[in-house]
Design goal:
84% helix, 2 helices, mainly alpha, single chain
């Protein structure tokens, strides 16, 4: 059950990253903001996989 929640959380993170890519492409956010998001994503996913 707990693994299912972690997988769903991971899916949400990837959805958020896809949104960030779209916002970057459309000029809504800048490259630095996008990079900050991807770094946080990597850190968060690393934490999930260490559980």
């Amino acid at each position: 059950m707990e693994l299912q929640y972690l997988k769903e959380l991971e899916d949400i993170i990837y959805t958020f990253l896809n949104l960030a890519e779209t916002l970057l492409r459309d000029g809504v956010i800048d490259t630095k903001t996008y990079m900050d998001i991807t770094i946080k994503k990597k850190e968060f996913l690393k934490g999930i996989h260490n559980i």
